Amino acid sequence: MNQMKQTRIKKSTTSPWWDEQFFFNFHVPPTELVDEIVDFSVYNARTLRSDALIGSFKCDVGLIYDEAQHALVNKWVLLSDPEDASLGAKGYLKISACVLGPGDVSPNMAAAQNDEDEDIESNLLRPAGVQLRPATFTLRLYMAEDIPRMDSAFLEGVKKVFRIGEEQKELVDPYVIFGFAGKEVKSKIMYANDHPDFYQDMRLGLQFPSMCERIKLQIRDWDRMNADDIVGTTFLQMSQVSSSGDQDTRVNDTLTLYLRAAGGFLPTFGPCYINLYGSTREYSDLPGEYEDLNEGKGEGVAYRGRALIELTTTLGELPEVAVEDMPGDDKLRVQKFMRRRKYRVHAAFLNASMISPAHADAPIEFEVSIGNYGNKLDENVPPCPSTTQPTNAVFDGCYYYFLPWASTKPCVVVDSSWEDISWRLESLNILLNIIDTMSANLERIQIGIKAKLPVPEQAQLLISLLDRLISDCDTPLAAPKDGKHVSNELDKLMATHRASSLASIKEMAISLRENATDLQEALTEVENLMAMVQNLANEPQNSMPDVVIWMLSAQKRIAYYRIPAYELLYSDDAMKRGKHCGQLMTLSLKYPCVKDKDRKYELPVLLRVKLWLGLQTQDQAWHKMQTEGELAVYAETYENQVNILGTWTNKGPTMTRPKWSDSEGRLELQKEDFKPPPGWNWEKDWYISPEMSMLYDKDAGHKNYLEDAYECQSRNLPGSTWGPASRPWTDVKGDPCPEKSAFPLPSGWKWDDDWQIDLSRAVDEEGYEYCVEATVGGYGPTEKTYHLCRRRRWVRPRSFVKSATTMKKQQELQKKKQTEGWEYAPLFNMKFHAQERTMDLVRRRRWHRKMVSGGEGGAVFFNLQSEIEKLKKRLAKNRSCLRCGNTDDDDDDDDDDDDDGGGGGGGGGGGGDGDDDGDVKRL
C-alpha cells in the first residue's frame, strides 16, 4: 500500500524506548489486505550510507489477523539482514499490532518498559531462515553472608522459657533465585542460617544471542506460614559482563566458546562477591514502607548482604539438570578469592545545616557504615565509633536548623575487612579521571564558543583537549600483582578489551587532530570519543560495598546518602585515587523511597563532610591530608542521677540506668574501668565536657516565639462528666509541662499578649479535640460518646528584648552551665536540656578524658574490666573529633557570642554555627 511512518530518533542508546502509535487506514477487501507485507526496519540515524539499515522483520497482515483478537500484543520480533539471514540476529524489537474492521474494539496494548518476569523466548517471532543457538548459563553459587534477620523471635522466646532446643538459631531461612528472560531456578533452602554455604550449580537454558539485558539474582527468606520474603535483589548487566565483536573462535569437545583478544567474549563473571541493597536491615513484624527496594525497584538505602558467585556461558547445549551440588574440589578452588584485608573509613563532619524543622525535636546523629560494619542498630557486628555525638538542633533564625558543633568537629572511624580488589577500582578511577578531564576541557571549548573567541584560539583549545586525551590513553591501567591480588577470567578479558579500546580511541583522536576542518563536527566526534570511554568506565566485579551516611533522630533512620567505595579509595598515585578521597563534599541527604511527590523535593539536611577509605596500613595518609585542626580522641562516660523527693541521687527505684554509662544507658562505664588500648596513653585526668547543643534553648535564634500548652481532660465512663486528666497540662507530644499560669518567662523576653485558646485548628467552638486514648492519638473535632480524652491548645506569644544586662546574665548562666555540665529531662529516654525545669526527674553530665597516641597506635577500643563476664568482653567505642581554633582541653566548649538574630538559653544562634575553616591549627 506504500504507506510508511517513522519514530523519533533516540540518540546514543542500544536499548531505545519509543512508546509511539501509528495508524494506517485502508479501503480494500479483507482478502486483499491479508496478503500485504508489513516491514519493521531499524536504521542508524547518524549515518547516510546505504548500509545504515541495522535489521528488519517482515510478515504479512494475515499473520496478525490470525492471532487472538486479530492482534499481536507485546511481541518481540527478531531483526535480521534481509539480504542474508544467515548472518544471525541484528537486534530485537518489541511491537504491538492489530487489524481492526468496522465495529472492532482494540485490545489493551500498554507495555511496561522493564518487565523482569516476562518470558521473552516464548514470546519471540523469528523470520524464516534465522536460527538462534542454544546456550546455557551456569551460576556457581558458593555462599552468602550478612543476611539480615527476617523472622519473628516469638518462637525462640517460647523455646527459651521451656528450655526446648539447644543454642539460639538465626532468624532467617535463605535461598537464592537465579533468573533470566522470564525463567527462574531456585537453590536449596538453608534453614536458620544468616551465612549459608550453598555450593550448588544452577543452570538456565536460553537462545543465544538474547535480547534480555539483565540477569537477576535474588535472595529470599522461606516462610512456613506466609509468602516468602525478599531479602534483596541485584542484577548483572549483560553489556558489562560480555562484549560483542568480530570473534576469533574455536569450539572444544564441550562446545565451550573461547573468544580471543581480537573480539568479544560471552557473559562471564567471578568468582566474586556481589552485594545486595534494599530496605533498612532493622527487623519489624509489620510490613515496611520500603519493601519495594528489596525487589530492586529504586535505589537501595542499606546493605542487605552479599553472595559469592561465578557465571559461565556454554554454547551449543541446553541444561539437563537445573540444580545440582558442586564437586568438592571446586569448594577448595574458590578459597583463594576469599582472602580479606583490613580497611578503614575516616569521616570528619564539618557542618550540618538546613535541617528540616520536622526532625529538630529530638537529638540528631550521623552514622557512617560500609557493608554491615558501622551499623549501630545491628547487634551482630562489633561496636565501633561510627556515629557522631547526639546533638540538639538549633534554629538558624530563618527557617531551618543546624547542629552547633562550633570548633569541635566530630570524627568517626569504621574498620572493616574486604577482599583486596584495589586494582579493579584503581583502573576504574583512571578511566573516570580521563572522562572528567575531557568533560572539563570540552566545557572550556563551549565557553570559548559562547564568548566568541577567535577561531584560532578555539582550535587551540580543541588541539589541547585531543593532546591530553592521546596522552591519557597511554596511561597504563592498574594490573593485579602476584601474591597480593587474585584475578579471574573476566578481569583478564576486560583488561584486554579496555586496552584495545583505548588504543582505538587514541588512533581516532590522532586522526581527528590531523584532519579536523570544522569545529562543530570535531566537537561531535569528541563527544563520541568521550562516550566510548564512558562505556569502558564500569566495574561489574566491585565487591566492596558502598559507604552509606545515615541521619538518625530518636533512634530512627531519617535520611541517607550512598557513595561508591571507589570514589573514596586512597592510592599513592593521584590518577588512581578516588575523586572524593579526603576532599570536602557538600551532600544533600535524601529520604529513602520517596513516594509522596510533595516530599520529593524536601531537603532533610545539608552536610559538609570529608571521607577517606583505604587500607589500615595507609592510615597516616588521612592524617597528612587534614590540616584544619588537631585530631583529638577521648574516652567518654556519662554520670547519671535521679530526683527523689527533691534530692538528686544515683540510687533508688527510679534509677533505670547505671550510675556511669554510655549516652544511651545500655552499657555500664565506670571511670576506673577504662584502660588505654595498646599504643595509647592518657594525657590528662577526667573533666566535665558539656554538650554544646544543650546550652541552646528551644527558642534560640528566634526573635518572636509562640509558647503553647495543652489543657487535657478525661472521663472514666463514656458519656460522663469531663474532669482534669492525670496529666492536666502537656506539650504537643503528651509530655507533662507547667500549667499556663505557672509558665516561666525566660530572661530577656517579654509577653506580647495574654494566653488565648487556639481556634485555628480542627477543634470545636471551645477549642477541644477528642480521642479515645491520649497515648494513641487520632484527635478529631467532634465529640462522640465513646471518647474518653480531650484537649485544647493555649498559646501566648513573646518577643526577644536584647539588652546589656540580659546578655551579661545569659553569659554568666552559660558559664555556670558549662562548669556543672548537667543535662536535665523528665525521663532518661526523653530529650535533654541544660536548664532545670519543674517536671525534670533525671539528669546526666558527660565526662571526657583525652588520649594521645604513643606512635603507631592500634584500634581505639577499651576492654571494660568490670563487665567482661556480663557482656562477654563487649568493647566500648571511643569518641573522636577534629578541634579547630582553641585546642586547650579544659576549655573544650568555648562561649559562643550571642547573635542579634535571637535569644534564649545559650544566647541564640544566628544563620549558622560559625563553622568557618579559616581559623585552624595544624593537624
| Coarse structural class | alpha+beta
What are the low-pLDDT stretches, counting only 5+ consecutive residues below 50?
Answer: 157-163, 246-262, 865-875, 887-923
- The number of strands is 41
Instruction: Assign an overall shape.
Output: globular
**What's the main sheet like?**
12 strands, antiparallel
Euclidean distance between termini CA atoms: 80 Å
Q: Tell me, rounded to a whole number, the average pLDDT.
A: 83
- CA gyration radius, whole angstroms: 34 Å
Q: β content, as a range?
A: 25-35%
Tally of contiguous helical segments: 12
Helix coverage percent? 10-25%
Membrane topology: Single-pass type II membrane protein
Coiled coil: 502-539
Domain C2: 1-77, 116-251
Family: Belongs to the ferlin family.
